[in-house]
Structure formats: C-alpha cells, structure tokens
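Researcher: Next entry in the queue.
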Amino acid sequence: MSAQRLSNDNPHLVSLVVQSKKALQHGEQLCLRASQLSSASARNAVDVLALDARVKWLSDAVSEQLKVRNSMWVLNSPD
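Model: Structure for this entry, 79 residues:
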C-alpha cells in the first residue's frame, strides 16, 4: 500500500502518525534535557562535597592551632 493511497483512504491515520512522531521527538528532547540536568546536578553535588571536605579540613586545622596556642598561653602565663 503506497503512502498516497494511505493518505487518501485514512487521513485521520496520517494525522495520528504525524502527531505521534512529533510527540516522540518532544519526548526525546525532554529525556535529553533531563539527562543533561542530572549530569550537571551530579557534578554540583561532587563540587559541594569537595568544598565541604576543604572547609572541614580548614576548620580542624584552625581548631588545632587554637588549642596549641591556648596550651602555650597556659604554660607561659604568670602565676
């Protein structure tokens, strides 16, 4: 059966095929965008975890320095 005969016999069928193709293309675009957003979100999560680790490392280092400084002050304070 040729496309011309199909379009003459069933114009509604042709319309449904065109709508289905458009819907499929739109769905593919949505999936691609969702995939891109998911990848970006994962990269951001990794960046946040790395930043959190740096902040914790710096906080621990400052805390340790303050403890050392405090213990030196106590040892050197006049009685």
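Model: The chain has one domain: 3-76.
Researcher: Noted, moving on.
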